[in-house]
Amino acid sequence: MDLCSAEVTEQGGREEEEGEEVLLSQPTCLKFITDSRSEKLRHGSIVEVCWYLTETREQYRIAGQVLYITEDTKEDKYVKERVSTWKAVSEAARQSFYWPPPGQPVDIDLPEQFMAEANAELSAPPQTFVVGLVDPVRIDHLQLRGTPQRRKIWTRKEQRAWEDLSVNP
């Protein structure tokens, strides 16, 4: 996986390493946050992200390799990415990382379950906060509006070049 192979400069700019820009700063690297107790972290490093846009009737399926940045991550560029991402999310989102584990039964009538610990330091990410970076290798775009419907699949080749192919929906 060549995900985020160069360094991010202190000024927030980009440096290049062997002709590749930092994926942390590129729009081609999808970033999401999740809870370390979530089941999705146990499904391996190949993922697929899907969106359906009802207004335009389009579907996107993006497959790729994921890198999870956890509390145990040691590489400085990833540690910085995790901290800056934590600071960028809302306080309500930060508090949710102190809630019971995802998928665990809860009593909705006991709101104290959903309050951050009284002494919780919300300025630093807790152990449960994970950043996921998806390095896409295949994009499948389906347009359901119009006749004929259209579908195109992009596949990443060597040197990060993309090849596209129109296929029957």
Helix content: 10-25%
Please give the radius of gyration in angstroms.
Answer: 19 Å
Largest sheet: 6 strands, antiparallel
* Number of discrete helical segments: 2
Query: End-to-end span in angstroms?
Result: 30 Å
Question: What order do the SSEs take from the amino end to the carboxyl end, as H and E?
Answer: EEEEEHHEEE
Shape: globular
- Number-wise, the strands total 8
Indicate the proportion of strand residues: 25-35%
The overall pLDDT average reads 82
Give the structural class: mainly beta
Could you list the spans in which at least 5 consecutive residues all have pLDDT below 50? 4-23
Can you walk through the features of this model?
The protein is mainly beta. Helix content is 11%, strand content 34%. It is built from 2 helices and 8 strands, in the order βββββααβββ. Strands 3, 4, 5, 6, 7 and 8 form a 6-stranded antiparallel β-sheet that branches. A two-stranded antiparallel ribbon has the order 1-2. Strand 6 and strand 7 (150-156) form a beta hairpin. The longest helix has 13 residues, at 76-88. It is globular, with a radius of gyration of 19 Å. It starts with 15 loop residues before the first strand and ends with a strand. The relative contact order is 0.21. Mean pLDDT is 82; it is low at 4-23.
